[in-house]
Amino acid sequence: MTLMMTELGPVVYWLRIVSQEGRDKLTRDWESAKRLRDVEEWLRSNDIELKEVELPLHCTVYYDKTGQDFDYSDRVHEEYAATRTLMTTALWIGKEGAAMEVELTAKERELMKHREGLTPHVSMAVSKGHSARELGRMLTRLRCASEPPGRDSETQSTLHASRRGDGWKVRLPDQILTCMLERHEMNSERPCRQANRGTRMEERLQEVPVELWTRHPNDVGRVLAATPVSIQIKEGIPLPRVAQYPLRKEAIEGIAPVIASLRDQGVIIPTKSQCNTPILPVEKPGGNKWRFVQDLRAVNKCVKASFPVVPHPPPP
């Protein structure tokens, strides 16, 4: 049996704004900008309905649509604990939504991948019928547009709004934002249809062995009738010893209950060994819950495959 690290779906790497003061300032600037008289009238006349983004405020650096880009994952795995900075330059409002343009340092630009044609930004709001993934190209389009002739501009306090193409540019004082690199799974939990549980269904459910039902979120299930998996070690191959990279405090605290549950179930056993492979706690969609992910590729090199390994190319 070949052990490997698996992904459940698309993964996004982003620089999340971690400073509460910075997040509050961004929100206040956005609230003030959309209430500028000319901007408000333009939104109303074009029937543009904006809704604030539900995800944490962040700047995306890479969207891995397959979740299988292990080369990028390896390249940035030591970057998660580092504190970084972004600087805001302007707020842009268009038919797709609103986003705060940010300027990246050289070190942050090294994290960018496949973002050609997309202006780095923090998504603030999305228009009805559009998605946040459209905002990067919206900023690029509006930045390349010229200011139309006429009076279409407004200044209020520290904000100055002017027309740009089919949208608006709102200049505001520069702000330094503190952020950290994070890895976030984007697999959405799809709602399931409620089964029609009639008498016959209830009878059939009673026939299912109780061992198949999960008792809690971290229950792995232990069907005693299953045949144990036998793993054979290759001869002459050194045992895996990969150092654990630094983890953020919230990742350590988030994964602690999962590890404790797996230990209580006997799935993992505390021991001392020369072998080690790193773990990467991944926050589940919706926050507050974490998933245990372990990089087992070093283990794959040491064990004999029970079956031929068939390549699994990513979908086009």
From TrEMBL:
Spans annotated as Disordered: 145-165
Highest taxon listed in the record's lineage: Eukaryota
SUPFAM superfamilies: DNA/RNA polymerases (SSF56672)
InterPro entries in the cross-refs: DNA/RNA_pol_sf, Viral_Replic_Matur_Polypro
Protein name: Reverse transcriptase/retrotransposon-derived protein RNase H-like domain-containing protein
Species name: Eptatretus burgeri
